[in-house]
Design a protein that fits this description.
The chain is of the alpha+beta class and 314 residues long. The chain is built from ten helices and seven strands.
Length: 314
């Protein structure tokens, strides 16, 4: 019998971890330059006083960006395999000569040849009802060529930029996870998930990491893309969730970011933790912003965690 047969969910989870690892490294490429030259992240790829230094920085970062390309492409291949695997994992063995044995020895799935990477998009279209856009299939082929440069030559011959990596990542996410849910998935599958071992809620937490990153995400994604991947436009994502605010590591001293949006006059939804919120109009205003709206989680029947819906003050 077969052993070590892949499961669709496990493959998808690995794909998301690789994807967000590539995302985090791409964001860091921007932030490293911006922190040294004090250039706003939304302006770094345009015209500014340090445009020449930015060009030199991008040229010097080709090897790193080539490595990131390899990670992004690996995430795509594993995600496509997970889509096929959801129908049947044995479809991955098509065009493979599976040895038939006369003994009771098990067949290790991981030792068998599976579908080639170049065939995965066509296999998804043929064997599943998952809709892959033509534009993404073209990008998949381009990214695979760039990954092969890194795999076969150990280097990348240029032509990459942080902006291009952002474009690759956004198109890939929209094509392979068309339901969006970026913030929720970002929390669940943060790239460096091994750091969760150290998260104690005082000095670090994954929610803290994502909160710190959120302004960069807003800046790097255009309005249309942000709305598709997060599920709501930037202008409407302006409410503060008590669950997510409470999850920020207390000793970091960082300010919370808005992760919720209103769904009704006194109801809201958090795009990060995906909990419904109840908004309460209170006679006593917030000390920080002087607003009178406070939010509690629908799942918190006692209302023990309440924050200002307009600024996140506890």
């Amino acid at each position: 019998m077969f052993v070590n047969v892949p499961e669709s969910e496990q493959l998808e989870n690995t794909a998301l971890r690789l994807f967000f690892d590539g995302w985090e490294r791409t964001v860091d490429l921007h932030l490293d330059f911006c922190s040294v030259y004090a250039v706003p992240i939304e302006e770094v790829a345009g015209k500014h006083d340090f445009s020449e230094e930015w060009t030199e920085y991008v040229d010097s970062a080709q090897a790193e960006m080539g490595a990131i390309c390899a990670v992004i492409q690996q995430a795509a291949e594993i995600r496509l395999k997970s889509i096929i695997c959801a129908v049947s994992p044995y479809l991955l063995l098509l065009n493979s000569e599976v040895p038939l044995k006369m003994t009771d020895a098990d067949l290790d799935f991981t030792g068998l040849r599976t579908l080639d990477a170049v065939d995965l998009p066509r296999a998804v279209r043929t064997m599943t009802d998952f809709e892959l856009p033509d534009s993404y299939i073209q990008q998949y082929g381009e990214l695979r060529k760039r990954r092969n440069q890194v795999a076969h030559l150990g280097l990348h011959k240029g032509g990459l930029s942080p902006s291009l990596l952002i474009d690759f990542l956004c198109q890939q996410f929209l094509a392979l996870w068309p339901d969006g849910r970026w913030l929720n998935r970002r929390v669940e599958f943060d790239g460096n998930s091994a750091q969760r071992f150290f998260h104690d809620g005082r000095y670090s937490s994954v929610e803290t990491t994502v909160m710190i990153e959120l302004p960069s995400t807003r800046a790097l994604l255009d309005n249309e893309t942000f709305k598709k991947v997060v599920g709501v436009s930037k202008s409407k994502l302006k409410g503060f969730c008590p669950n997510c605010v409470d999850s920020i590591a207390r000793k970091t001293g960082i300010d919370p970011e808005a992760t919720a949006y209103q769904t009704g006059e006194l109801t809201a939804f958090c795009a990060m933790c995906e909990n419904g919120l109840q908004i309460h109009n209170e006679p006593e205003c917030c000390d920080r912003c002087e607003a009178g709206q406070f939010a509690t989680s629908v799942s918190d029947a006692t209302g023990t965690i309440s924050v200002c819906y307009c600024c996140g003050c506890r």
